Amino acid sequence: MLLNLNKPWIVMELQDVVKIFGLETILIYTALLLKKRIVVYHHRLDSLLWFVRALPAFMWHRQDWNIIYPYMQLTNIEISELLSLQTYVAGFRDAAVEGRTELYDVFVNLPAIEITVAAHAKEMFAMTKTHKEIAVFMTRQAENTDLNDNLFIKEVANKTNELLRSLRNLAVRNEHGKEGIKLTELKENKFAPALENFLWNLAAAEGYTLI
């Protein structure tokens, strides 16, 4: 059952995010995982704030709530601030923000329950079998009545850690002992192009040296 996002003082949990967007939640998850830019629109400030504040819990392993800019306006100062950043989740009440594609890689229209990937980011968000598996996993776990939100977050974190362990298995150490991902060795695995591109970008987001 979808939440009434126009209800005042709605309390948003991570499970609710997945219940609202279903399999398309993977676009939000991927944007967070790859440290991309997410803009969320809702005309109600309370609904906007709860939604935006819930999203970093998808990346529990990072414990980074500093990426949140819960309520921004389309002023020159605030736009300049966002344009100086590489990653964020920013909330807006002005629907005109949808046309400001320089501000986002993923746009979430919360009242319309729509997620849009900006044209310049399409290649980054090419879906793979891995994405589909995670999307199905999250939707099933969100509907599991035996899980409260804390347990749901833990299940998502475990799934993310599985992915990160797979990435770690691809890493090599350079002469300084630092882990890195070598493109030539990544190609030797003969992954599908979309998966190879995803893993390469994930390695960059996770701070691996790219060789």
From TrEMBL:
Gene Ontology BP terms: protein transport; regulation of early endosome to late endosome transport
GO cellular component, one term: late endosome
Domain of life: Eukaryota
Keyword Chloroplast attributed: no
Cellular localisation: Late endosome
Keyword terms: Endosome, Guanine-nucleotide releasing factor
UDENN domain segment(s): 1-211
Any single Pfam family the record assigns to this protein: SPA
GO MF, one example: small GTPase binding
Entry's family note: Belongs to the DENND10 family.
UniProt protein name: DENN domain-containing protein 10
